[in-house]
Amino acid sequence: MPHYTGPLLTRPLLDQLQTALKKGASEATASFDLGRSQDPVSLAPDGWQWRGQTFPWPGKLKDRTIYYWDGDEFSAASRFGTGLYKLVPTDWGVPTFEIDGIKMLVSAQLSPMDDARRKVALVEPRGKQVLDTCGGMGYFAACCLDDGVAGIRSFEKSPEVLWLRTLNPWSPDPEAEHAQGRLQLNHGDVSREIEHIADASMDAVLHDPPRFGIAGELYSQVFYDQLARVLRKGGRLFHYTGAPNKLTSGRDVPREVAARLQKAGFNTELVLDGVFATRR
Questions:
Q1: In sequence order, which residues have a C-beta less than 8 Å from that of residue 148 and are 6 or more positions away?
Q2: How many Cβ atoms sit within 10 Å of the Cβ of residue 44?
Q3: Closest by alpha carbon to 142, among 102, 164, 171, 121?
Q4: Contacts with 58 (C-beta within 8 Å, 6 or more apart), sequence order
Q5: Residues 6+ apart with CB under 8 A from 18
Q6: Are 9 and 61 in contact (CB under 8 A)?
Q7: Taking the complete model, does pTM exceed 0.90, yes or no?
Q8: Rounded Cα–Cα distance for residues 257 and 269 (Å)
Q9: Which of 14, 276, 245 is CA-nearest to residue 120?
Q10: DSSP code for 106
Q11: What does the pLDDT look like over 94-137, one tens digit per residue?
């Protein structure tokens, strides 16, 4: 799907523009791509102009919501599928996303991209072939591309997530010049698609599955055996687990994951909010 190239609005950005207009300004500088760049914008009582296109002033915008121009009006970057999928702004510029109000990426103390960067660093992607099992917003892939990965195969099961990616300027576009053909983004269920990946063809794996209650198959011994099969000896893996409360869940998910990975042929250690593993 082609990436959206129009303006993105949030309530704080709209307030900034309208405040400038009320103070008598006819021009301002602002970011319409969630902090990636700054552009001049012309302001008038009946609308504003950006990159040669005129837009009407929208009505009241909601907090914690990103809006895109759908050709007729500014619409919220959200879509119903198996739940409500929504792109959500953060103080860092880089957005997170939610499914039925549950935040999928960290953003309170750290930018989602910085969080991805420190995890990607564990697998040292430069010059490697990397498997990105659950692509999400593509931040793992973006960091791998920046770090000089040779190639990355990324899978995403949800069409709603793939659509949100086309609106998110921080999500890497496989067709962009920067990608140089290195990112292969696939719409598919990695628990099935992995069967078609050749033995020992991957140098590293980044595994960021939904929580266990939603996608238990991605925490199974069967799937970990497949990860071991496609990863060469000495290859690195980072598996995000989060830190579910043992008192409420009754389970120690990170240690359960580590035990299954060891059985599959990995050496493991608990690192950050997940498990780092090396293929024996």
A1: 125, 126, 127
A2: 11
A3: 171
A4: 9, 14, 67, 73, 74
A5: 57
A6: yes
A7: yes
A8: 10
A9: 276
A10: -
A11: 999 999 998 888 888 999 999 999 999 999 999 999 999 999 99
